[in-house]
Structures are given as C-alpha cells and as structure tokens.
Write the structure tokens for this entry.
Amino acid sequence: MKRLVKIILFILPWWFGVCHAVPGKAVSFTVASYNVENLFDMNRDGTEYDDYTPYGPSGWTQSVMDIKFDNIARVLKDLDADILALQEIETGKALALLQQGLNRMGMAYPYSAIADGRPTAVKCAVLSRYPIRSKEEIRAGHDQERNILKLTVDIDGALLILYVNHWKSKNGPESRRITYAKALSDDIGRLNPNADYILTGDFNSDYNEYETFKGIDRLNDTQGITGINHILGTLADGRMVDESFLTTRKNGRYLYNLWMEVPEDKRWSVIFGGRKNTPDSILVSAGLYDTKGLNYMDNSFHVFAPDYLFKRQPDIPLAKGRPWKGPASWQRIFRSPAGGRRIHHAAVSFRGYRETRHRPVKLKRGILIMRIQLMRMRWKYRIIIGIGIAALVAAAAYFTITSGLFRQITSLINENTPPELFIGMMLLLPLAGVPLSLFLFLLGLKFGAVTGLLLLEAILPVQMAVAYMLAYAVRKPLVNYLVKRKNYQIPAVPEHK
C-alpha cells in the first residue's frame, strides 16, 4: 500500500503540469501606458522642477495638487486597465496617493512599483491588479537620466515581463535616446528567446523615427541610426517589422510596434504645436504570438482618447482669483461625453496647456492600451482529468504488484532466460527505468566475457538512439514548456562549441 501511495504522489504533480499546458478557456487582461505629466506631491525633496516647488511662486499648493490627482484618477477609472504603466511620477508617495484615490473610487490596484533608484525629478511606475514577482531598474546614461523599470508580473501563473520607459526628450539629440535603447537591448538579450515581454512608455521617438528625424540636424547626430527602430529591432531590411516577419524570423530578436495595426492617418497619441506625433509606443515580442501561455489579442491595440481630454471649455481662474502659473496657466474644464459630467483640470492630467519661453504650446495626449489573453484549462476539468488518470495508473500499478506480474517479469531475467528474450529486455526495459546493472551482471554469465562485451557494444548505441528520440519527442517539449512558464533562462551554447 505504501508503494501505491508513492506512485500516486509521484504522478499527480506531473499530470497537473501537463494539463495546465492544454489550451482551454482564455482569460484576458489589459495593459495601458500613460504619461501623467509631472505628478508631484507636496514634499520638498530638492529634485522638483521649479514649477512644482510646494507653495512656491508658481502656486503649486495642496488644493491644486488634489485637483490634479483627482482628475488623473478619474481618467484611470474610465480607462479601467488591469496593468498601468505610468510615466512622470515624482515619488513612491505620489504613487501611493494616486493608488489611494483610485481605491476610494472602487478601483483597487493592490500592487505597485516605482523606479526610484536615481534621484530624478520624475520616474516610471506601475499599478497592477496582478502580483509583481520581481522588480529591477535598468540604468542608462548619467545619474540624471531616468531608469527603465523592469517588472515580472504573475498572470495566474504565467509570467509577463514589462519594461516601462521614459527616454530623454527631443531637447537632446538621438544619441541620448540610443543610450536607453542599448541598455534595454542588452537586458532583453539575456531573456529566454521565448519569453513573453512588452516594452512600453514614452520613448520620445516616433514609431517611424528613422524617417521623421532625418532632416533635423539637431536630432540626427547618429548618421540615421535610431534607438527605437535600429537598436530595438522594430525595423528590418529598411521596413517596419510586421507580424508575419516577427513570427517567422528565426534569427535575431525583433519587436513589433503595435502602431502598425492602426491606419496611418490615425497613428498619433500627442498633438504638439499642431503636429500629430507618436512618442508613446507599445512593442511586443514574438513570444506573445506563439499560442502558448500569454498571447497578444490581435488588433486590440488602440488609443484611449475620450472627448473630455481634448475639448476645451471656457477658462476660469483658480480659487480666490489666483491663477496657476506653472505649466498650465489656467484651470481648464473639459466635458465628459458620458452624462455631460465636467472634469476640472489644473495642470491637466493629459498635458493641457504648457508654457515655453516663447509662447504657450497646446499639447494633447492619449493613452495607449492593449489586451493580452492567457490560455488555460479550467481548474475543475484539470482536477477531474488528473484524478481520473492518476486513478487508472495507480490501479494498474496496484494490480501489477499484487498479482505477482512484476515478480514474474523480473524472474525472467536470469542466466536461463532465452537469448533473444534476454537481449530484447536488455534493450527495452532500461528505457522504462529498470536498472541496466542487473543485465550487466548476468551478461557475462550467460554469454561469456567476450561475447557479452560485443553484445553490450551493439546494444548500447541502439538504446541511446532510442532514448534520444524519446527525449526529443516527449521530454523536450515538456521541459521547454516548464522553462518558459517559470521564466528560467537556459544559457545558449554557440553552435561551433
């Protein structure tokens, strides 16, 4: 009976692992990227932009901050994404305040992370409904450059690697952004080639930057090479990578920019100075197209841009007639299309009005959002099938042991066993786990030293060839599945070695 219990305990974990790989019900979730434009708290950390010094000349006060936090929370509530990749969050405290505001609205995001390894004014952050298993920060450039936030998120057992970016603005040349791209590319190069990962955020680069920056000398200091296209691999053979290329290419790491799913005239997330741009992007890996684990839901990418973020209503000054003199000169009012609700923006959550040294520039921004699905079998079916198979195997094992069949089989292996039967069992039974040493002991007694050694030299290569074929056809797919599922990384050995 003890042996029967051991057999059941050995079989069940393996069976449930195999069942989990069988496609079943698809569970989907959404990932969104949102630059909230300078979300500062009221603490004096010494790294604030001048316009956001608490109670400073620009008028950044508690009441103004509360309005901005409330407005951003309202936008995020309407967005209702499961994982929020945020840019321009000042501190962990600012992120916690936003998290608390969303919670009061019934939008709980229990998991959060922020790239606070450098004392930069603003940082990348994430709010998530799914557990964050690990956090890393990728450093690029000098200490005033924002770190890239790398997270591993647990989606019901499947792992999604998320990179949140906020690259150097176009106040600097392309070489500043290439620094980010190279640091990111180096880290991606250490991932399992089949890993499910997403690059998202504010890259301060158009999806087709290699075309748009060519004639701008102050940007093009890299002889036409761009970070987002050439270094990250969204460009191949002079053309943007499409889904067909991504899923069929076996050599090299390439990424698919989801802007390619949108009609060309609708490819924009920002209106700056009257021109439509795509500084925000979501780039996906080939692993999200392999129909295993996590999969991108084709054509789910879109820009969340409700009317109330873009339609300006009459301006009114702030309380007591004191105008906000920071990046938003006035408090703006936007009307929501749903029920005529008004959302008041001060230092607007979607970059309302910004002052430059020359003149106010109107800057409007949308939020990028995509959907991913997890293929999995329902637990009740897994349990039913698992118990059924385990019961059958246990019953067969119990019958074999109690009926004496196992003893009868092993009794056949002796020096009186017919030669053909002995050789056949020596060839096949070790593949099922019977110790080869049992045969080696009897081989010399039955056939003599010389003949036994010759038979051993003949049988072992055949046995190894059969074992290799079984391992390649059965064991390798299972190992690859488990490696990908647990996000382990098997070192790649060069072919010439």
Q: What stands out?
A: The radius of gyration is 31 Å. DSSP finds twelve helices and 21 strands in the chain. The longest helix spans residues 449-486. The longest strand covers residues 25-39.
